[in-house]
Amino acid sequence: MDSSPSKLPHKPRLATLDIARMVCIILVVIGHYDPADAPAHYNNMRMVIYTFHMPVFLFISGYIYLITRKEELFKTFITKKVKRLAIPYLVTSVIIITIKLLTQDTARVDHPVTALSYLKMFYLPEAGYFLWFIIALFIMFMVVFFFKTKASRLALLGASLLIYLLPSCDIDILCLGQCQVMFVYFMTGVVVADHAPVIFKVGIVPTTIILLLFIGGEAFYVQHQDSEVMYRLLAFVGIATIMTLCHNCEKYVPVLARSCMVLAPSVYIIYLFHTTILGFAKAAFGKLTLFAGNADSTFYLQAFCAIACGVIIPIILYSIIKKFKILRLLFGV
C-alpha cells in the first residue's frame, strides 16, 4: 500500500465514490449474514464492519448531495426524494412483508410480521430493520435542504454533533433514534464537500497512518467491546480509511475502478433485496449435504455462497428493472 499522502479531489471522479459504495454494500451483506453457528472470528469481523459501514454510506450520501445540489423549490426537491427513496421503500416493504406472511408458518423467518405490518411500515422499518437507513436518509435530506450557505451547513454539523453526543433517545418511530446517531456522518460528508479545497490542502494524512489508526482502534475495540468512546471514534476513522483506500484504488487499480462504476448503480437494489435473498439462500443451502458439518471451512463455504447470492442476484435484478419504466419508478432506478 502506498504510504504517500492521499486525498480526494474537490469534486471526485465517480470512481472513488463508486468503489466506496461497492465496498460498503458488500460489507452490509456480510454483516447481515448472521447464522447462529458462526465462528467467533466471523462474529468479530462483523463487529468491526458495524463500527463504520453505515457511517461511510451516510458520508457518501452527504458528499454527493452537496456536489450535485441545485437551486430548486422544496416541492421539486422532495418529489425527487419521494421517487428515489419513499416509493422504493414502500414497494420493497410490501414485497418483503408479503413473502414473510406466506412463508413464516412453514419456514424460519427472522423478525416475523403480521397483517398490521402493512400499516406499521409507514412509520417503522417493519419489513426489516435494515430499512431504517432509507427512512433516516429521507429525513436528513428534508432537514439539510433548508441550509443554503456554507456557514449554516457548518452550524448544522455542529448541532448534529451535539445531538450525537446526547444520551440516545431510542425513538423507533420514523427511526428518529437512528437519525440522532447518524446525522453527524451525513453532515460530515456535506461539510467536507463544502470545504474540500481547504480540507484537502491542510488536512492530508498519510495512508499508512490512517491504516494504523484503523487497525489499532479496531483491535482495541474487539478486546474492549464496552468502549463507547472507541466505537464512536472508529466511525470517523473508518470513513477516512475507506475513502482513502478507495481513492488509492482509483489511482492504482483502474480496472477495478471501471468495474465499480459499472456496478455501482445496482447498489440500491442490492440494499433493498439482499436480506430476502440471504434468507432464501440460508434455507436452501441448509438442505444441501455439501454444507453439512460444523467445520469452519464448511461455514465459510456456505457464507461465501450466500453472500455472493446476496450481491449477484440483485445485480441481475437491476439489469432487468432498468429495462422497464414502471419498474424503474417502483424501485427508484
Task: Give an account of the 3D structure.
With 333 residues, the protein is an all-alpha fold. The chain has one domain (14-330). Helix content is 71%, strand content 0%. The chain has helices at 14-32, 40-50, 53-68, 74-103, 117-120, 132-144, 150-165, 176-194, 196-202, 207-223, 228-252, 254-263, 267-285, 296-321, 325-330. Helix 1 crosses helix 11 and helix 1 (14-32) crosses helix 12. It is globular, with a radius of gyration of 20 Å. It starts with 13 loop residues before the first helix and ends with a helix.
Low-confidence stretches: 1-13
Count of discrete domains: 1
Order of helices and strands: HHHHHHHHHHHHHHH
Tell me roughly what share of residues is in helical segments: over 70%
Number of helices: 15
**Strands, count:** 0
% residues in beta strands: under 5%
Calculate the mean pLDDT score and round it.
89
Structural class: mainly alpha
List the helices and strands and how they pair.
Elements: H1 14-32, H2 40-50, H3 53-68, H4 74-103, H5 117-120, H6 132-144, H7 150-165, H8 176-194, H9 196-202, H10 207-223, H11 228-252, H12 254-263, H13 267-285, H14 296-321, H15 325-330
Give a summary of the structure in a few sentences.
By secondary structure, the chain is an all-alpha fold.
Keywords:
71% helix
